[in-house]
């Protein structure tokens, strides 16, 4: 079973890469993941003249480790979790916080203007959108009365959280786009704005690690959405692990289609949206779930 799940995970990462390429260039290239991997792998590793050596080496590794850690506590099926934690819901948010740390290190290390501005922009963006994420997770924990991801999924047996608390789902979905710096929240690494932003000074294997880590991060956020709001492994006819991957794939693909339909938000506007509207609405969602539980 674990071999099958590993194969489905690799297929999911491949599919996410292909769909992302289509969303940018508007044509299908099913060899793109392999060609992008090969070109980055053999590319010369150019180092900026006055870089911070420790941070330059640490940032890509920390980024991909944080993405993998967030996947490790999420169920792939009823009895298939890499690491079963009683506080898994809290651990997910903690793992996502290290994405912020890695991006700040990545922006600071090259000692370049574009990368540094991109890093600080991402810091502000993640701090702003971590509040809706943690409060949306809190509302699912309230209903399940547990931080165990298995119990959160089981609490949706009769009614998925997307119906029970649709506002929480919308907030978590939008905050996920911001955390993965997908459109319309991609100002920190946009080519037109900052020539690649955080990643503008990275080449070769370091850039490859960032790209793979970002694909895993997108998969992790989609998998978290499937488990927290879309009933996890529950579904008719098909095995539970198949439903998990179908829901995860649908959410991941929707990230690219939905984001491209919206105009890119200016950095200050994206922060304003979260602090003025996203965080208060997340508090209202917690109040709503509390009222439903009392009733």
From TrEMBL:
GO biological process: aerobic respiration
Membrane topology category: Multi-pass membrane protein
Cellular component aspect of the GO annotation: plasma membrane
One GO molecular-function entry: NADH dehydrogenase activity
Domain of life according to the entry: Bacteria
Stated name of the protein: NADH-quinone oxidoreductase subunit H
Short name of one Pfam family: NADHdh
């Amino acid at each position: 079973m674990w071999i099958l799940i590993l194969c489905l995970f690799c297929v999911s990462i491949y599919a996410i890469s292909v769909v992302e390429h289509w969303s940018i260039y508007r044509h299908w290239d099913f060899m793109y993941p392999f060609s992008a991997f090969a070109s980055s792998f053999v590319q010369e590793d150019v180092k900026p003249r006055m870089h911070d050596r420790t941070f330059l080496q640490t940032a890509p590794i920390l980024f991909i480790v944080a993405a993998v850690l967030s996947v490790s506590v999420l169920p792939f099926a009823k009895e298939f979790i890499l690491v079963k934690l009683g506080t898994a819901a809290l651990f997910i948010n903690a793992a996502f916080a290290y994405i912020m740390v890695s991006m700040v290190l990545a922006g600071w290390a090259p000692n370049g203007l574009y990368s540094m501005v991109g890093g600080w922009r991402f810091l502000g963006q993640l701090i702003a959108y971590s509040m809706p994420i943690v409060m949306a997770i809190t509302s699912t924990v309230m209903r399940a009365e547990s931080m165990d991801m298995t119990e959160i999924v089981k609490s949706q047996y009769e009614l998925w959280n997307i119906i029970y608390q649709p506002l929480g789902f919308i907030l978590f979905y939008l905050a996920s786009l911001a955390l993965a710096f997908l459109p319309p929240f991609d100002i920190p690494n946009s080519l037109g704005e900052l020539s690649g932003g955080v990643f503008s000074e990275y080449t070769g294997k370091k850039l490859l690690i960032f790209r793979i880590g970002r694909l895993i991060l997108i998969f992790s956020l989609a998998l978290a959405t499937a488990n927290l709001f879309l009933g996890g492994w529950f579904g008719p006819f098909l095995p539970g692990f198949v439903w998990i991957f179908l829901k995860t794939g649908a959410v991941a693909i929707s990230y690219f289609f939905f984001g491209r339909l919206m105009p890119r938000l200016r950095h200050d506007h994206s922060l304003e949206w979260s602090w003025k509207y996203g965080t208060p609405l997340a508090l209202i969602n917690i109040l709503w779930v509390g009222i439903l539980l009392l009733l």
